[in-house]
Amino acid sequence: MRKPRDYDAELKALDDKARQLKARKREQLGELVIATGADTLPVEQLAGALLLTVEATDERAKEAQRMRGEAFFRAKSGAHPIARRHDSGNTADSGSPRPASAAEGAA
């Protein structure tokens, strides 16, 4: 006979994992702020800069920001230039944990 699944335990494990991921994301964002030197800015100015970036609609400006960020992480890690993707402008990988690993290397 099959062992019954413990859905409550599975849900609790998933909830714990989600909490860990959220905590790690917060930690990585803090490391990124420190690594870029943005921790010296007034909180209002930092929030304003982030809001301007999130609300940006100009694709050229977004690409320039992405390239500057990529160059920042390459310089921090001492890594070789990453080959650019030549797809339809897909930057789906921009939310990857790369910033934190670069920030950790700088710490």
UniProtKB/TrEMBL annotation:
Report the protein name in the record.
Answer: Conjugal transfer protein TraD
Write down the InterPro entries for this protein, in alphabetical order.
Conjugal_tfr_TraD_a-type
Report residue spans for region: Disordered. 72-107
Cited Pfam families: TraD
Q: Which organism is it from?
A: Sphingomonas sanguinis
The opening ranks of the lineage are: Bacteria, Pseudomonadati, Pseudomonadota, Alphaproteobacteria, Sphingomonadales
